[in-house]
Design a protein that fits this description.
Length: 127
């Protein structure tokens, strides 16, 4: 037996498909956005608690917190939080309906994904 025969052979394993293999679809985007908006809402909840603590801390702390929210960056963050809340709500309702057995056909799924995306933008713009 030659020395090369006794050594384990390394097999090249196939790589799993990745995002560059798939064409982006509304369903894929809605799933990713739902997870991302959940994270944004959790972070926003921490900011909300901080705001309540500032309110309880007195006028000076509240004024500093309100000034922070009123700054250009604060306004952008609040707009993003409002959109995340609207999207997570609408998409959560879509998930609830699908759990009830509605909208499983691919055209329905695509349409409902777009409704979640566009509806959240409209709802956040109205707020």
């Amino acid at each position: 037996m030659a020395a090369s025969d006794s050594e384990p052979r390394l097999r090249e394993r196939p790589l799993s498909p990745h995002l560059q293999v798939y064409r982006w679809q509304a369903q894929m985007a809605s799933s990713i956005l739902h997870r991302a908006t959940g994270v944004i809402l959790a972070i926003g909840a921490l900011a909300f608690v901080y705001g309540l603590m500032a309110l309880a801390g007195g006028a000076q702390r509240w004024t500093a917190f309100a000034d922070c929210l009123g700054s250009p960056l604060g306004r952008v963050l609040m707009a993003g939080f409002s959109w995340a809340l609207a999207y997570h709500l609408i998409n959560g309702i879509r998930h609830l309906l699908q759990d009830g057995g509605l909208g499983f056909a691919i055209p329905d799924f695509v349409r409902n994904s777009w409704i979640s995306i566009v509806g959240s933008v409209v709802l956040a713009a109205l707020g």
